[in-house]
Task: structure prediction
Amino acid sequence: MCGALARRGVTANQVTLAAAALSVAAGVWIAWSPTSPWPLIALPLVLFLRMALNAIDGMLAREFDQKSRLGALLNEMGDVVSDAVLYLPLAMNPQIPSWAIVALVVLAVMVEMIGVVAVQIGADRRYDGPFGKSDRACAFGLLGFLLGVGVPGGAWVAIYLGVGVLLSLFTLYNRARRALVRAGETV
Result:
């Protein structure tokens, strides 16, 4: 598939921007109809497509010599912006505690930032878990689907998202610690 896209002149950067545009569109849909089940039911599909596009842009960059500094910037910023515009509108849904959504989005930015900053201190880009981009996508997709098909919200939603907050904090710690170790720092 990547070969066909490359032959048609599709670039990794175009795919990265398409993934971000998909996230923006879905986020606007959620914000427009925060109590409608349809954007929530569609959320897992949107997240699956976004993850697929993220994989495709990486394959195009690596396998078809499309790596660029602009591409690296677009890839990292696209992920963070996509998370924010897709997940923050969920805070408008009365079944979802807004504090948890905001905390998860802020922590997602921090987790991805520490992964990138690792390069600055002499380590490699860190993708350590347990709650990276794909894990967040699965968690949010499942939450959206369950609420969208009519599972009533309640305390379980706060607990579910609270676990996500704890896993995000642990991920932040793991990425920072492993970046320091890789850079030769004693932790």
In short: The chain has one domain: 2-180. The helical segments are 2-7, 12-32, 37-63, 69-87, 98-120, 133-148, 155-182.
